[in-house]
Amino acid sequence: MKIKLVALLAILTITFSSCGDGKKEEKKGIKLPTKKEVKETPKKAEKSSKIDLLAPTLDNKGVGDVKSVKIDAKIDDKLVAKGKDLFKANCTACHKFKKRFVGPALKGVTQRRSPEWIMNMIMNPEKMVAEDPVAKALIAEYHAPMANQSLKEDQARAILEYFRTKN
Amino acid sequence: MKTIIKSIFSLVITATFFVSCAPTTASKETRGNAKGAIAGSAAERVYVAPGEHDSHYAFISGGFSGQLSVYGLPSGRLFRVIPVFSQDPEKGYGYNEETKPMLETSHGFVPWGDSHHPDISQTNGSVDGRWVFINENNTPRIARISLETFETEEIIEIPNSAGNHSSSYVTENSEYVVAGTRFAVPFPQRDMSIKDMKGNFKGALSFLKIDKETGRMNIAFQIKMPGFNYDLSHPGRGKSHGWFFFSTYNTEEANSLLEVNASQNDKDFIAAINWKKIEEYVKNGGGKKMPAKYAHNTWSDDTHSATSTMEKEVLVVEPKDVPGAIYFLPTAKSPHGCDVDPTGEYIIGNGKLAAAMTVHSFTKFQKAIADKAFDGEKYGIPIMKFEAINFGVLDQPGLGPLHTEFDTRGNAYTTFFISSEVVKWNVKDLKVLDRHPVYYSVGHLMIPGGNSRTPDDKYLISMNKITKDRYLPTGPEVCQSAQLFDISGEKMELLLDFPTIGEPHYAAGIAADKIAPKSRKIYKLDENKHPYGVKSEAETKVVRKGNEVHIYMTMIRSHFSPDNIEGVKVGDKVFFHVTNLEQDYDVPHGISMIGANTSELLIMPGRTSTFVWEPKEVGVWPFYCTDFCSALHQEMQGYVRVSPKGSNIPISFTLDGDIPGEEE
After folding, report:
1. Which residues in chain B touch residue A8, judged by CB atoms under 8 angstroms apart?
2. Which of A93, A149, A150 sits opposite B537 (nearest CB)?
3. Which of B330, B407, B567, B630 allows an S-S link to B267, with CB 3.0 to 4.6 Å?
4. What does the DSSP assignment read for B562-597?
């Protein structure tokens, strides 16, 4: 049983160790601080990463079914309301806007990531953390794999609209 | 030494068929098979490669474990044990607050049952994969299990009955599922001398109507039959649809030393019930409502909770009031299985003590009714003339015939308990075609779709009561087993042995594609109507009501919310109402609390479940996730501070230092 656990951990480690986003907002880097460090050194730490998790990667559409999303200059309030409800039900267990929680703080996310990338991450996080370089860097940083909440494309789109109000 | 030689032998065989596919040595299982099959090819035929799926589901009774097991065929791999009549701490069934009502009966909470004969619902004479029904013998009950969720959705108790053995077979459009009485009892129960049994005890045969949409069962009527032992049953089908056949023994009505006293008569009966006629009689106001007390427990996938209702009456039909609806078919001798072939023409009594298979003809039976070919009556029920209804008798095919199933090619397969074999015979010719030993002492056998017009007749499994030397010994108690045969050729070929749980009475099988595509993956959070369920961490809270503390908790990879709770006191009754916020397939979480006098909860995505903890000691006590959920599973834990009785520490709850969901 113990051996099984160790093996499983090893596999999980391999699976998840190739991946990440910033520590406490400002943190960059792929090197894993201990939990204690997270609490005690919220400011900039080591900068060994090849990917700056806070740097915009707007050309990267991610990996998944969403290839192209049309964004109106004007924000759709009805869609925002729908997205807000969905976000509350499906995402708040791990994400806050202003504060790092289980996952990264989401304030300004639409300025960092493309609409397609965001929706692919919501709809197919397993594929993203396996194949997309930014998602890989994020999981390396945050450890916890993002839960797939089985959201449909129109639901992910609504959440994206909500994010646009959180810049 | 013998074992070593055996092991070496099997290793050699194994090595052989992995090295080469060419026929080599003939094993004792090849039995001169026309295809020249060898042990190696048998192995190939049951080998399901890693990641591939079996072609069939087999729902095998857990017998005295009270449960129902789910296996794959042809591999014989065990996938799941569905808790039905017994508590199952692994899944929290019968321990958590939501499922406890499923095990309520008129005798109170009963934590165990003796499950027997699973049978799958049917549409137009074929198994449809919607539900599987299974009966409980000891405290007479029938359960209905959803084949979408693989969970028990309903359990109904059968009043005026004891030893619910001739159950739970369904008619060809799932109109009814039946229950019978193996131990005749006073009807209704009363205080009387046991020796006055004869003529005074009765045997209820119950017909439970199945709702077409929901599967919900209700006892439509109970027939108050003479006090014989009603052993097994099967519905008519095709031309005999509308009839049900029950085997009887102890028509002597003995109340002691039955192994001698119930074996006096050369022939007992198959009771033939025209349920359509009785249904019509009841529809026209027939039958009498009698007071009764029986539990009817139903599960809701909306509230994720069971409700137990105590029913107060049942409609009883006296045979004499519906002339022409019930007949006795004389059948040798203390027949056990009562089986109907796929065409509905042949009704077969497996004459347990007679070493004879009695084959009745439905067509002859109908003519005999018209001709009034009766041979007296018993308790007002006409006994048919044996010659007038009998198609033939297969004499001495083996010793101790118990059960028969059929293929689509006119053949029957009968198990023989004493001679420990399965015998294949042609129903029309009454000729034995093949026989194969089983290891050992077979009870039931199963061909997928066995109780239907359309058996899926590639595989047969025998279910054996005794295994002795077939497996590594495990002390005095060794497993019972199933053996898989390929019956597609002229000769039966034994392919595989595999162990079963409890005693595998009957089983029900079905092609995987009738169930797998609709198997439930998650419960949608926005459809969760559990009264203590929450939809997000912002809704989590801890509420005190007197000495009750209700924790509205959530779980997601990989933390609980809240995970730090204070203000609980010794003497409190703490309810953990825990919702799994995951909406992804195969991400259950578990939870358990040190010192809780109950099982863990194992909670599927979108579900809410509750356990109760009554802390007895002051301290800070941890709880944790019991089901490995992610790389951070070991981090999934929390604490409850327990203060002394009378302490004024207020209730508080946090996650990462904040009230959950407080900060955006």
Report:
1. 628
2. A93
3. B330
4. S-EEEEEETT-EEEEEEEE---STT--EEEEETT-S
Contact B631/A92, CB-based, under 8 Å?
no
Query: Could you give the number of structural domains in chain A?
Result: 1
What is the structure's pLDDT at A50? 67
Boundary (domain end) residue, out of B518, B539, B568: B518
* Long-range own/partner contacts, residues B252-259 (CB < 8 A, 24 or more apart): B253/B184, B253/B197, B253/B198, B253/B199, B253/B201, B253/B226, B253/B227, B253/B228, B255/B194, B255/B195, B255/B197, B255/B198, B256/B194
Residue B474, min C-alpha distance to chain A (Å): 20
Structural domain that includes position A126: 2-164
Residue B523 lies in a domain: no
Structural domain count, chain B: 3
Taking a contact as any Cβ pair under 8 Å apart, which residues of chain B between 528 and 557 contact chain A?
535-538, 554, 556-557
Tens digit of pLDDT for each residue in B490-509? 999 999 999 999 999 999 99
The minimal CB distance from A89 to the residues B536, B631, B663 is found for: B536
Is B661's CB within 8 Å of A89's CB? Answer: no
Q: Is the ipTM of this complex over 0.90?
A: no
Last residue of a domain, one of B471, B490, B518: B518
Task: From chain B, pick out residues whose CB is under 8 angstroms from the CB of A151.
Answer: 583
Query: Would you say residue B664 lies in a domain?
Result: no
- The domain containing residue B206 runs over which residues? 56-518
